[in-house]
Amino acid sequence: MIDSEGENASALSARWPIERVSLELGRRCSKGCWFCYNGSNAEGERTWEPEDVVAFARDCAAHDVKALSFGGGEPLEEPSLFAILRALDGILFRSLTTNGLPLEARFDDLVAARPDKVHVSIHFPGNDAEVGRVIAQVGALAGAGIKSGVNLLVRASTIDDARTATSRLYDAGIGPDRIVFLPMRGEDTPTPAQIASVAGPKFQSMSCLSGCGKSPRFCSIGWDRSVAWCSYTTTRAKLAEPTWAAMLRALEGLGLRPCGLTQLRV
Q: Which of 109, 135, 238, 245 has the fewest CB atoms within 10 Å, i.e. is most exposed?
């Protein structure tokens, strides 16, 4: 297949057989965490129109992309999310990550949109109320027939809090197969050994936990339509148009600047 610029997209696909894409619908998030990797805030901008997201996802699915995950910004603060999820039902695997704060108000809308998976984040494992809320929300999602899990942010300085939160999750029946242990970036980053001391011998985390590098099967697309090998790197290229071929063109020759996880060593 030759795309509109004459690039052999089939050759690019052989080098970069992308199967999973993370996409930020916007940068709006009322929580506005100081450590947010893309500076999301209550006024957050967006450049994606719903019809472009659906067309892009369908084009990607036609070229063997298996899964599309929505991050943020807070996806549940994007009014178009539910229509997008419904439009892509059965086209590819649709997941999202939420901080959970808007979940109660949007629960029925989310269940009706039938996402394939929802992960709820615990940003402060020392906050008993937050941990309890997320446990209840994950249980409610599972009860509604939606596959669910937890993203647990782990800091080196609060390892004991992470251990306590993990014990509560395990006691609630949310096992390591449903938890992603995320290392804090920049300052206060735990080592892989510290995360293992929280989670146990087998756990899910970022692939970069053992070293920064590209995955030929994954890429991230930002709220500003920039493409990168990772959601956290600042090495990005603009998506010229919302198509699979344009995504591969943007990735070709694109580097990967480490995000500052200098402490990620055993």
A: 238
What stretch(es) of the chain map to CATH 3.20.20.70?
9-115+217-260
Mean pLDDT, residues 178-184: 92
The structure tokens listed for 204 are 């899910």
Cβ atoms within 10 Å of 53's Cβ, excluding its own: 23
- What is the Cα–Cα distance from 167 to 231, expressed in whole angstroms? 29
Identify the architecture of domain 9-115+217-260 in CATH.
Answer: Alpha-Beta Barrel (3.20)
Find, among 217, 188, 80, 56, the residue nearest to 125 by Cα. Answer: 188
Would you say 180 and 151 are in contact if contact means Cβ atoms under 8 Å apart?
yes
Neighbours of 171 (CB within 10 A): 9
Average pLDDT over residues 215-231: 91
